[in-house]
Structure formats: C-alpha cells, structure tokens
Amino acid sequence: MAQTFYQYLMTQRNPNDHGEIATFAQNAFLDLSFPKQISDFDDLSRYLELNAGYLPSMDIFDAVYREYQAHEQTGGEHE
C-alpha cells in the first residue's frame, strides 16, 4: 500500500533526534495545515515555500522527498 509523503515523513519523527529531517518531521506534525493527503512534489514544494517558516532550507525537503520516492519504488523496503 502506497504511503503519502506525510505518512512517510512521520516515520522520520524522533523526539530525541535534533537533526534536520527529524525536526522537519516534528514541525510538519505540529503544522495543522500541512497537506497530509498530497504526495506531488510540486504541490508540496509550493505549500512549504509559502507556509513553512519552520523549514530553514528547501534542500531538507528535497532530500526527504528523494528518500520517500526510493521508499515507494522499493515497496517500503528502502532504509
């Protein structure tokens, strides 16, 4: 079963990890307006550029999105 980007991102949450990806995941969790059902790169990118002051660099999103794509292509087996 395919995950949305948000569902994948939530697997990266870790309150003990203060790295960029874990922090992005935590802040997306707290963002009540985050588009949870959207997985399209352009739509997510547009939302984040306009609404996610908590994301210091779009490079973080780009990296997580690449991981998400790899995860989906391997059926969830990619680590």
What brief labels describe this structure?
56% helix; 79 residues; mainly alpha
Structural summary, described in words:
This protein is 56% helix and 0% strand. The chain is mostly helical and 79 residues long. The chain has one domain (22-79). The longest helix has 16 residues, at 58-73. It is globular, with a radius of gyration of 12 Å. It starts with a helix and ends in a 6-residue tail after the last helix. This is UPF0346 protein FD02_GL001228. Pfam families: YozE_SAM_like. InterPro entries: UPF0346, YozE_SAM-like, YozE_SAM-like_sf.
Number of E-type strands: 0
Helix-strand string: HHHH
Beta-strand content estimate: under 5%
Number of domains: 1
Please tally the helical runs, counting DSSP H or I stretches of 4 or more residues. 4
Classification by helices and strands: mainly alpha
Query: What fraction, in percent, of the residue positions are helical?
Result: 55-70%
Mean pLDDT, rounded to whole units? Answer: 93
Which stretches are low in confidence, meaning pLDDT under 50 for 5 or more residues running? none
Q: Shape from CA axes?
A: globular
Largest sheet: none
Radius of gyration: 12 Å
- Distance separating the two termini: 17 Å
